[in-house]
Amino acid sequence: VEVAPEFRRRGIGSELTRVRLELIWAWASAAYYFTNEHNTASIRMHETHAFRPVARLREIRGVTADDGRSELILFEASR
Questions:
Q1: What are the Cα distances from residue 34, in Å, to 6, 7, 25?
Q2: Helices 12-25 + 40-47 axis angle, to 10
Q3: What is the pTM of this model?
Q4: Which 8-state DSSP code applies to residue 10?
Q5: Burial of 42 (0-12, 13-18, 19+ CB in 10 A)
Q6: How far apart are CA 22 and CA 17, in angstroms?
C-alpha cells in the first residue's frame, strides 16, 4: 500500500489494510507483508493490525532494500 504524500497521516493506509485483511481472512488464516527495515511508518501501522515480524532477510523473491544494503522484514498476521 502506498499513499500519496499529501494524503498521508489521515488513516487511508490503515483503512486499505483493514479492507485487504477482510478479503484475506475470507480465504486464509494468515496474511504476510514485508517492508524495508527503515519504513517505520508502515511498520507501526501494520503493527496496529496485529502484524508481527517473523524474519529479517536480505532478499524476498528477488526484491532487495536499498540495493541490498538494508534488510527486509517479513511480517505475519493471523486470524
A1: 24, 22, 18
A2: 50
A3: 0.86
A4: S
A5: buried
A6: 9
> Are 15 and 43 within 8 A, CB to CB?
no
Record the cell numbers describing residue 37, joined without a space: 527495515
Measure the CA–CA gap between 68 and 79, rounded to whole angstroms. 32
Q: Going residue by residue through the chain, which has 79 residues, state the pLDDT in tens, using 9 for 90 and above.
A: 889 999 999 999 999 999 999 999 999 999 999 999 999 999 999 999 999 999 999 999 999 999 889 999 999 999 9
Contact 74, 55 (CB under 8 A): yes
CA 73 to chain centre: 9
**Among the listed residues 20, 40, 42, the one whose alpha carbon sits nearest the alpha carbon of residue 31:** 20
